[in-house]
Specification:
Blueprint: H1 3-16, E1 31-34, H2 44-59, H3 65-75, H4 80-91, H5 97-111, H6 121-130, E2 135-138, H7 143-150, H8 154-157, E3 164-165, H9 178-187, E4 194-198, H10 201-209, E5 213-216, E6 232-233
Parallel strand pairs: 1-2, 1-4, 2-3, 4-5, 5-6
Helix pairs in contact: 1-9, 2-5, 4-5
Length: 254
């Protein structure tokens, strides 16, 4: 590990402020941090298509649906390489995950710009922007894929300004807290007063490790017990009530 890496990790740890077991019970929060895939953008449906095509190509048959859904549940929120290695292990392919990533690149590059905003995403983000609530995005995608996914919604994502944290900006992705801690640092907001919106179990875990509050909006096919530690679990972002979290209050506890 280089000195720069060590300094980076020490900075994040010092910025955390509190650990997950000492999160404040006061539900007033000052900032919102959003995941991207499966939370703001409907990209998981596109990834499903690619995974299914690859499995048939390499094994000669589709994966049994229950097994496929269980596999995908483990993948939500993880880095592409981790998921690629997991896929190969599950289908018995003795090749590095990079082989799958190289195969999928032209397919996913064509598909991702077609990703739609998920229900409630646009209205919630625009309301928070009008109320001048500090906002950031923390995604396990790299910067290139972030740009590709959001290209059809540039005006919408411009509401986050430069507060975009990707896997290129940290050394550990979810379930480690680095992405969320870096997002809080971008906003100059203490982690304990940040509210995270996540769809994935690994993202919920990362937010808790960062000492933040977290609202989970899991994929409909995900077992809700996997995000049960979240402070609130919703079906869609349309159900989120900012008043419950005093998100518009100018006197939120710091």
């Amino acid at each position: 590990m280089t000195n720069a890496q060590k300094q980076h990790i020490l900075m994040l740890r010092s910025f955390r402020g509190i650990d997950e077991n000492r999160r404040p019970m006061n539900q007033s929060v000052r900032a919102a941090i959003f995941d991207l895939d499966g939370l703001l953008l409907d990209t998981e449906r596109l990834y499903d298509e690619v995974f299914r095509e690859y499995i048939v190509l390499r094994t000669g048959a589709p994966m049994e649906e229950k097994a496929f859904l269980a596999m995908r549940a483990q993948m939500f929120g993880a880095s592409p390489l981790v998921n690629a290695n997991r896929l190969h292990a599950l289908i018995g392919i003795n090749e590095p995950g990079e082989c799958f990533l190289e195969w999928r690149k032209p397919r996913i590059t064509e598909m991702l710009p077609k990703a739609r905003l998920l229900p409630g995403a646009e209205s919630l983000v625009r309301i928070l922007a009008r109320k001048k609530v500090p906002m950031a995005i923390a995604t396990s995608s790299d910067r290139g894929f972030y740009t590709l996914k959001t290209g059809s919604h540039r005006e919408f994502f411009s509401l986050f300004g430069n507060h975009i944290v990707t896997s290129d900006d940290v050394y550990n992705t979810k379930p480690e807290p680095d992405l969320f801690l870096m997002a809080a640092a971008h906003l100059s907001i203490p982690p304990r007063t940040c509210l995270v919106f996540e769809d994935a179990p690994s993202g919920v875990e990362a937010a808790l490790r960062a000492g933040m509050r977290v609202v989970a909006v899991p994929h409909p096919q995900l077992d809700r017990s996997l995000v049960a530690r979240a402070d609130e679990v919703l079906d869609t972002l349309e159900q989120f009530d900012p008043a419950r979290w005093n998100l518009f209050s100018q006197n939120a506890s710091v």
